[in-house]
Amino acid sequence: MGKFILVLDAGGGGGRAFVVDVNGRCWATSHREWTYQYPGDARPLGVEFAPDEFWRILCEVSRDVMTQYRLDPEDIIAVSSTSMREACVIIDENGRELYAGPNRDARAIAEAGRQGDAYGEKTYRLTGHWPAPIFASARIPWLARHRPEVIERAAGLLMMNDWILFKLSGKTASEPTNAAESGLFDINSLNWSTELADILNIPARLFVPIHKPGTVIGEVNEQAAEQTGLSAGTPVVVGGADTQCGLLGSGAVNIGDVGIVAGTSTPVQIVMNRPIIDPEGRTWTCPYLLDNTWVVESNAGATGISLKWFRDSFYQTEMAMAGASSGNLYALITEEANESPIGSNGVLAYIGPQIMNARVFKALPGGFTVMQPLDMLNESNGRSDFARAILESNAFAVRGNLEQVIQVAGLEPASIRVCGGSAKSEFWIQMLADVLGKTILVPLIKEGSAMGAAVCAAAGVGIYGDLDTAMERMIRYSSVTPQASLYSEYTEAYRRWLTQRVSSQTSCQDENP
Fold first, then answer.
1. 199 lies in some domain
2. Do the Cβ atoms of 357 and 509 come closer than 8 Å?
3. How far apart are CA 17 and CA 139, in angstroms?
């Protein structure tokens, strides 16, 4: 049947297995949702996950894709991983998980605040990230204070994609794109920052070896083979963080290429040949998967989360109906949104999406603004207007963050590429092209993060000589052209949205301690 690559993708909402052949054709995919835990000693912002449950789900989806097309395990020539950034696992010397937290674990808000006050500028120059509670650099001091036994027994810090490879092979290793999301990684030397670890009193024994994406670090062991349905001895290849893998899976490899991963959140990144730091500290600077490349990122925030919230809150009747899948409901949302004109009849949404400011981690106020007299509300504004307002809000946030990335990088995009769940919506992608006034390239396989990890695996086992060649052979895309007549209308609506969003963001910054 040919040669196949399997990727395990740990996202914010669930685990996915993805099988692609060496020509970039998707053969099978399986997804399961997972849930989180909210420990009492870390309230109100602490979130954890059960490693056994997450690994069980990843094994289930792996076995699913093996059976969907009756794939012979021997036909899988490599396995790799990608995951949500900032999620990490701390293990002891025997590989047992002592702590497992997703990217939404913000328990360490006090620690991050103190770090920002004392070492913010230094941290930003070293790591490309202003201190924030979602980084291991803040969580580890929190654990040292509240659960000292965890740090006393800790032997390794694994980012989530590292942990998946560890479960497959028993090898502890990390790679630059997600290690940088620990807040403890020097983006200039591309290695752990022992200087920062000393400042924050974080044990250097937690740091595992760093390998390039596309490196074979081991083989699937007997236990993992039995659990996943893979063959023991299958090469295990280093992948990367979901955002950077999404860029690679979209074909964004040239300096100046912009990649937008429209998923749970929507990072907007531009590929650079050096680690540029924003003088105002608004953006992140991160390593990329390719040699001698970095990205500047401005993240649009909780775009996918806001859309899911809208679905769950406004479509409860439809959700209760037999056979109403989430995919059908998202299609219904866009169908109804299409009934509302540009500007959503005066409804503006501020639920999640924002213009990034990395120095501020205080929640922004959110809601809907209805630009109608009270006596006209029942007559003028319906669910379709709110649906369109949510989708427009996501597109407007992308535009605002793209403008910020261009300003920091100091160059215009060579191309704009979009992957992720929202890229499956032709309606929203056309809206985004019209809002930006730019042609958008959309990969045929929208699961860009998984595809990027598959590219790493194909290069790692020698199917292709390097990541660039693997990408060229495996990635195909279509283009969406903006409708020039709509750009000015959207620009007017965007300016209205931006005025109020920036006003709330500025107010929030003024109040931030």
1. yes
2. yes
3. 29
Indicate whether 496 belongs to any domain: yes
Same domain, 160 and 259: no
Q: What single letter denotes the amino acid at residue 194?
A: T
Structural domains in the chain (count)? 2
**How many CB atoms sit inside 10 A of residue 191's CB?**
14
Question: Please, what is the angle between helix 326-337 and helix 303-314, to 10°?
Answer: 90
Tell me: the pLDDT tens digits for 295-343?
999 999 889 889 988 888 888 888 777 565 666 788 899 999 999 999 9
Residue of 219, 201, 195, 266 lying closest to 416 (CA atoms) = 266
Query: Do 288 and 295 form a contact (C-beta atoms < 8 A)?
Result: yes
**Same-domain pairing of 266 and 167:** no
Q: Which among 333, 490, 324 is positioned nearest to 425, based on CA atoms? A: 333
Burial string for 165-184 (b: 16+ CB within 10 Å, else e) reads bbbbbbbbbbbbbbbbbbbb
Distance set, CA 332 to CA 73, 230, 337, 343, 459 (Å) = 39, 38, 8, 19, 40
pLDDT at 151: 97
Q: Is 501 exposed, middle or buried (0-12, 13-18, 19+ CB in 10 A)?
A: buried
Containing structural domain, residue 424: 252-444+484-513
Q: What is the Cα–Cα distance from 276 to 274, expressed in whole angstroms?
A: 6
Phi, psi for 19 (deg, rounded to 5): -115, 125
- Do 282 and 188 reside in the same domain of the chain? no
62: nearest Cα among 238, 173, 262, 220: 220
Give the tens place of pLDDT for each residue, 408-444.
Answer: 999 989 889 999 989 999 999 999 999 999 999 999 9
Q: What would the DSSP string read from start to end of 113-137?
A: HHHHHHHHHHHHHHHSS---TTSHH
Distances (CA, A) of 496 to 184, 212, 268, 345, 441: 39, 44, 22, 13, 27
